[in-house]
Design goal:
TIM Barrel; 8-stranded parallel β-sheet; two-stranded antiparallel sheet; 8 helices; 10 strands
Length: about 250
């Protein structure tokens, strides 16, 4: 058994730091790098790409709404042509830094509200897919299994990598429980690690109401902006090792 472990990184801005990216990059296998629209800036993107190459971590474009103030977690009713251009812009920006570091962008993952919206909204999902197609149709999209974005991506010939969240609660339909709901974000490293091992070994998880969901993930996500993110990632990696699950990049 093997699985990828990804996390959102590079989400600081200017003098504002969020999380211990350098330490986290030593634990994960894929890095969802903020591309400057919801978080991140050129200097941070450059540093993260350099460190990702140093530690053998896959560089992924974490594309989001143009929403620094809201950290990209506010849904925006955006014209699909604008969304297409915004996503394409972010892909190009990160690719420049990845190339300068000696690598390239390996996959795409929407962030925050764009992730959740594209999972259910065919118009916004289509804009994301069209941007990826225009940039590099070989790039996989990391998203929820069976969601609208996954379906649209497959229809257009893109590769989809099924993702599960070890530190987030699920709704019975397989979407994430909104952060506004109690218990939406988990914080106990032991609980999160146990969920991650179960997801990797059994491919399943219990929704907030107890419903059993079959996810079959190829990659597990732990958020880099949560308190004790590093401790959570270390606990997850240890639990996977103990369960006999090999950690490996999916691309």
């Amino acid at each position: 058994m093997q699985i990828d472990l990804n996390a959102d990184v590079g989400e600081g801005f200017g003098t504002w730091t969020l999380g211990d990216d350098s330490a986290l990059l030593r634990v994960i296998t894929s890095a969802n790098v903020a591309c400057g629209f919801h978080a991140g800036d050129p200097r941070i993107m450059s540093r993260i790409c350099g460190e990702a190459v140093e530690f053998g971590v896959a560089i992924g474009a974490q594309v989001g709404y143009r929403d620094l103030a809201g950290f990209g977690r506010r849904r925006i009713d955006i014209d699909p042509t604008d969304l297409y251009a915004d996503v394409l812009y972010q892909l190009g920006a990160l690719e420049a830094f990845a190339r300068a570091a000696g690598d390239q962008v390996r996959y795409v993952k929407p962030h925050g509200a764009l992730y959740n919206t594209a999972a259910v909204d065919e118009v916004q999902a289509g804009a994301v897919v069209q941007a990826v197609l225009a940039f590099d149709p070989r790039l996989p999209i990391l998203t929820l299994p069976g969601c609208v974005l996954a379906e649209v991506a497959v229809q257009h010939g893109l590769t989809v990598v099924a993702e599960a969240f070890a530190d987030r609660a699920y709704q019975p339909d397989g979407t994430l429980l909104p952060r506004s709901e109690p218990g939406a974000v988990l914080s106990d490293p032991a609980v999160i690690a146990a969920r991650a091992a179960a997801m990797a070994v059994q491919g399943a998880v219990s929704a907030a109401d107890g419903t059993s969901l079959t996810l079959g993930p190829q990659s597990l996500c732990v958020h880099g902006d949560t308190p004790n993110a590093l401790g959570i990632a270390v606990a997850v990696r240890a639990a996977l090792d103990e369960a006999g699950v090999k950690l490996a990049r999916f691309v």
